[in-house]
Amino acid sequence: MDDWRLITTWDAPPAWNMALDQALLESPGAPPTLRLYTWRPAALSLGYFQRFDDVPAAQRAACVVRRITGGGAIHHQRELTFSICVDLEHPLYAGTVGQSYARVHASLARALAEFGVEAQPRGEAQLSSDQAGTGMCFHDSSALDLVWRGRKGVGSAQRRKGGRVLHHGSIKLDTTPLEGAIASVADVRAGVAPHEFAQVWLRAWGPELGANFRAGAPDSSERALAKELVKRFEDPGFTRRR
């Protein structure tokens, strides 16, 4: 069983959240790392390839940043955000890209079941949460997304670079004003806190994913790189450049 570094950063600034994830991606030789975090203030993150003007919610969000992963925009409020950073040769990411999503989402489905949520991959189902033209992640589903009650409740995206992978994801604990009728844990159980769900998910990874989590922190080089990268994520030109 692999030793994994577990980094928790609750209520961190949006630009720092994005900068630290990129720093972890660009740290060859770092141990397999799972990061669990929340945002303060709440922010909307655009997918890397999205145009600011194509996401109506971006005009209404108090804070907007751009991720380095693709996919749709996410309103980071009332949720648990995670990132996984490992070398691509790690068994968790063996095989096809789709298989790696399926492994991570299966562990999340087991955790959701502990709260009474019957989540499953969307497959070929049609969802009531799908909406054209919003640019929002939870309004646009794929076959591997986790859904319940006919709506999407977990979305994730990957960035692969330099032999490493950054896997971002959002687990909706409740809906937000910018996302509306999506699936959330609150559909079944209200008031679940991010740290509460986090503890259940850590147990739900299961032996097949081979993770022995140890609390840790970014090392000095990762912190230094993140501090430098913050400037990019705070730059309005980067956020609005597309």
Entry summary:
The chain is built from six helices and eleven strands.
What do these coordinates show?
This protein is α/β, with parallel strands linked by helices and 242 residues long. The chain has one domain (2-240): Bira Bifunctional Protein, Domain 2 (BirA Bifunctional Protein, domain 2, 2-Layer Sandwich). The protein is 27% helix and 28% strand. The chain is built from 6 helices and 11 strands. The strands form 2 sheets. The protein has an 8-stranded mixed sheet, sandwiched between helices. A 3-stranded mixed sheet has the order 4-3-5. α1 (14-25) crosses α5 (220-234) and α3 (97-113) packs across α4 (194-204).
The overall pLDDT average reads: 94
Number of strands: 11
Largest sheet, in brief, is:
8 strands, mixed
Which consecutive residue ranges, at least 5 long each, have pLDDT under 50?
none
> Helix coverage percent of residues?
25-40%
Proportion of residues in extended strands: 25-35%
Shape: globular
Structural class: alpha/beta
- Overall domain count: 1
State the CATH topology. BirA Bifunctional Protein, domain 2
Order of helices and strands: EHEEHEEEHEEEEHEHH
CA radius of gyration is: 17 Å
- Summed up, the helix count is 6
Distance between the termini: 43 Å
Name the CATH superfamily classification.
Answer: Bira Bifunctional Protein, Domain 2
Can you tell me the CATH class? Alpha Beta
The second-level CATH architecture is: 2-Layer Sandwich
